Predict the 3D structure of the following.
Amino acid sequence: MNTLDVLVKARELVSAPERWTQRSFARSSLGNTVKATSRHAVCWCTFGALQVFGAGVESRAYRMLRSEVGGFLGKFNDTHTHAEVLAAFDAAIEAERAAL
């Protein structure tokens, strides 16, 4: 899966507010913290959504998104709104498309 695919799919994963979370990579339907790749995960943070598609901190997708938020993804995710997170994904997606 290329960088653009990862960004688009991760954004899609958190596109609905109920599928996005803060202060945890992912949560179960009971609200418990779980691994981003857990079969019990029903909502994800910004980085957790990237992890679902195999993107870690060394990935281009992570670096593109981090560049758009101007720093640590976890802090951005936990201090910004769902709309702002989606806007960051949109900007990273557009930047990646422009780079192709």
In short: The first helix runs from residue 3 to 13.
